[in-house]
Amino acid sequence: MRLDGRRESTNVDDRRRLSGGKAAGMGVGGLIIAALITWIMGGNPLDTLQQADLGQLAGGQQTEQREFTPEEQVLAKFSKQVLASTEDVWTEVFKQMGWTYKSPTMVLFTGSVQSGCGNATSAVGPFYCSADEKLYIDLSFFSSMKKQLGADGDFAYAYVIAHEVGHHVQHLLGTLDEAHARMAKMNKAGANKVSVRIELQADFYAGIWGHYENKMFGSLEDGDLEEAINCAQVIGDNYLQEKAQGYSQPESFTHGTSAQRMKWLKLGLNTGDIRRGDTFSIPETEL
């Protein structure tokens, strides 16, 4: 993915120097591994936040000052450029619809963070909080993607950011808050089904971003699309459950199967038509 010379977003809150090096008795490395599993299998990140022992988190967090590695700085710059790209793309898409896009803030942290949705550790994984309209990410998550699942490449990493921005788009359009309100009135199985629809639409919006990013800037290179599609495949609920335990449990799916995630990502990438992304009103068999 060609981003040389591209601007970096200023809508970034870099809290990495303020973050705890350890939280809840677990090292950052362990948290990142847990983050990968939680993000791809946990559905709504608020569920994880609510389950966290916040007292232990507060007691175990220690602030430390440290220097960033060259790899961390490269990832930080890359993430800021991708966020800037989402700003450019979604500003134009919203303009075409006669609306005004309000950009989210990206919070970079290490180990643990305070969000508008509560305290969180890296175990939550990348997440979006509609309460403060911010997306949160520990950059070490990208290393875990590569090591644990073989999901590597700059466009695969960009897809993760674009997916979280997709949740922000859902929030601005009202669909995210409406879906969460419905989930609050359902049992776990019913809420999981709504969660799948939320996540698949966010994948579709990530595809919309990729479509217009390339149309506006011609930034995609050979292999980029394959990187994102491979990432969508290996973070499917069925793939991960079968990899972890040898079988899958569809009633527990919260993000969608590999086939579903690839389908909606590719639909956004190929069409660039935001009207094609209604995952809420179609039958479950068509997801």
Binned strand content: 5-15%
How many β strands by DSSP? 8
Strand order of the largest sheet: 1-4-8-7
What is the total number of structural domains? 1
Helix content: 55-70%
Largest sheet: 4 strands, mixed
Quickly count the helices.
Answer: 11
- pLDDT under 50 segments (min length 5)? 21-35, 41-63
Element-level helix/strand string: EEEHHHHEEEEEHHHHHHH
The helix/strand class is alpha/beta
Q: How far apart are the first and last residues' alpha carbons, in Å?
A: 29 Å
Supply Rg: 18 Å
Mean of pLDDT: 82
Given the C-alpha coordinates, what overall shape results? globular
Structural overview:
The longest helix has 30 residues, at 188-217. Helix 1 (28-41) crosses helix 5 (140-149) and helix 6 crosses helix 8. The chain has one domain (12-286). A hairpin with a 2-residue loop joins strand 2 (22-23) and strand 3 (26-27). It is built from eleven helices and eight strands. Helix content is 55%, strand content 9%. It has helices spanning 28-41, 45-51, 54-60, 70-96, 140-149, 154-173, 175-184, 188-217, 224-234, 237-245, 258-271; strands at residues 12-14, 22-23, 26-27, 105-108, 112-115, 118-121, 127-129, 134-137. With 287 residues, the protein is an alpha/beta fold.
